[in-house]
Amino acid sequence: MVNDREDNNLESRMLTVRQTSRLLNVHPNTLRRWSDQGLIKSYRIGPRGDRRFRFEDIKRLIVEKGVERGADTNTDPSDPTSKA
Q1: Neighbours of 64 (CB within 10 A)
Q2: Which residues contact 2 (CB under 8 A, 6 or more apart)?
Q3: Domain 9-65 bears CATH identifier 3.10.450.50
Q4: Could you tell me which of 70, 66, 68, 81 has the C-alpha nearest to residue 31?
C-alpha cells in the first residue's frame, strides 16, 4: 500500500518522453507532435531542451479523456488521446 507522502511524490515527479508515451500507449514522436501543437503540456529542461511531462498532468489527461492503455478507439490526429 502506498502512503500519502509517496503518492504525492509520484504525482509531482517529471516523466520523460519515453515514460509518458508508454503510459499513453503512443509513439514518442506522436507525443512530441502533440507537445509542439500545444495539445499536451511539456516542460523543457537542460541545455538540449529535453521534454518532461508532469505525472499529475498525464494522470489527469488519462482520467478526463478516458485514455486506456492499449485501447485503439480514437484515431483523430488532433486529439491527444488518439493513436495516430
Answers
A1: 9
A2: 10
A3: no
A4: 81
Dump pLDDT digits (tens) for 47-67.
Answer: 999 999 999 999 988 888 775
Measured CA to CA, the distance from residue 73 to residue 35 in angstroms comes to 21
Share of the chain above pLDDT 70, in %: 64
Share of the chain above pLDDT 90, in %: 54
Which cell numbers in the block locate residue 31?
A: 507525443
Helices (runs of H) and strands (runs of E) counted in the chain: 4, 3
Please state the domain extents for the chain: 9-65
